[in-house]
Design a protein that fits this description.
Layout (H helix, E strand, L loop, with lengths): L7 E6 L8 H10 L12 E5 L29 H4 L8 H6 L35 E5 L8 H5 L5 E3 L6 E3 L1 H4 L6 H5 L5 E4 L4 E4 L4 H5 L5 H5 L5 E5 L6 H8 L4 E2 L10 E4 L5 E3 L5 E6 L3 H8 L3 H16 L7 H7 L23
Parallel strand pairs: 1-10
Antiparallel strand pairs: 1-8, 2-3, 4-5, 6-7, 9-10, 11-12
Helix pairs in contact: 9-12
């Protein structure tokens, strides 16, 4: 698969994400509200550490080995997503005339879901910790899903690097090897259309110069989108100039184009309640397991640039300015068109 002429990328600052799920809902309402898509959450915000969605996706395999060979991992089952789609007892609650005797609940008890272990986290008192991580298709430079597809139904657009699935070509497939090959488990199977589906970075919006719904909906200004080669944009500055944002699980070998600013985390405490400034609350070993060996350097860059703005006299910091994003358009790069001014922008 040839490299695209340009590549869209996202930066997500895990120090700013508050787990509000606004991006999750914006995506669900716009993109995955059709038949057979109940279990499809193209955007979800997982609590980390956590088992994620589908359950234990990090252990399912896929991607490429150290020699660059395609690896087929496990295909998520319906149980990994939480079983059958939830069916609620709306009629009983609304029209059953049972007053306070019944409450809204699934008819069958679910076993998992996209936000099942929210805020559980890890660590021991007094140093429990967790952080939120938005996850979607990673728009990889080396998409293992496309490599595994026997029908050439998955392609990477030259104009922006977005990965799309030709639904008609996909309908003839019986193996769903794209699901096995994606190490992030971001490809879903629709049992109604009998095809694979996944996040398409709101391609119809991008075609009109409008940013993906997840980015535009983020109230914490924790997400940026732009072309990586736009040297004046925040995404380029954070990823290329300062190297303060890193891909998730680079060892998977797919070269993803979603980059995370790693969480600094709160200050640790000693058991007597005094502050322990030397021990990070979020263990560096855990962050390295997510973002690789460069995470320590990225954290130091972020801390150093933040210190410039806090000391007296204050110093300028291009990284801090980019991450603060005082002006909303800074989050959108070249995709700053207003969706309200474009007719029928749908994903």
């Amino acid at each position: 698969m040839s490299d695209p002429n340009r590549q869209l990328a996202m930066v997500i600052d895990l120090n700013k994400c508050m787990g509000c799920q606004t991006c999750t809902v914006a995506c669900k309402v716009q993109s995955t509200n059709d038949k057979g898509m109940d279990h499809q959450w193209w955007m979800k915000v997982n609590t980390m550490p956590g088992r994620g969605y589908p359950k234990d996706w990090e252990e399912m395999g896929g991607g490429y080995d150290t020699e660059g060979n395609l690896v087929l991992g496990k295909q998520p089952t319906q149980e990994d997503y939480g079983g059958a789609p939830m069916d609620f007892n709306y009629e009983e609650v609304i029209y059953g005339r049972k007053g306070q005797d019944v409450h809204l609940a699934p008819r069958e008890k679910p076993t998992w879901g996209p936000n099942w272990d929210e805020d559980v986290g890890s660590g021991e008192w007094p140093n429990a910790y967790y952080f939120y991580m938005p996850r979607m298709c990673y728009s990889c430079n080396k998409p293992s899903c496309a490599h595994a597809c026997p029908h050439d139904a998955i392609t990477k657009r030259d104009e922006d690097g977005i990965i799309e699935i030709n639904q008609r070509a996909c309908e003839t497939c019986t193996t769903q090897e794209c699901m096995s090959a994606c190490p992030y488990k971001e490809v879903y199977h629709n049992e109604v259309t009998m095809s694979a589906q996944k996040c398409n970075w709101c391609a119809p919006r991008v075609d009109e110069g409008v940013a993906p719904a997840c980015v535009r909906s983020c109230p914490g200004r924790a997400m940026w989108v732009d072309y990586l080669d736009n040297e004046e944009g925040s995404v380029h500055k954070v990823v290329k100039q300062y190297e303060a944002a890193l891909p998730l699980h680079p060892e998977f070998g797919t070269e993803p184009n979603v980059f995370y600013v790693p969480p600094i985390g709160p200050t640790s405490y000693n058991k007597d309640g005094t502050l322990d400034e030397d021990t990070p609350r979020v263990p560096i070993e855990y962050l390295e397991s997510l973002f690789g060996p460069k995470v320590g350097k990225a954290l130091e860059v972020v801390k150093t640039e933040m210190a410039k703005r806090r000391q007296e006299p204050k110093e300028a910091s291009g990284l801090t300015d980019a991450l603060v994003a005082k002006r909303y358009p800074e989050l959108l790069g070249e995709l700053s068109n207003d969706p309200g001014g474009v007719e029928e922008v749908k994903s």
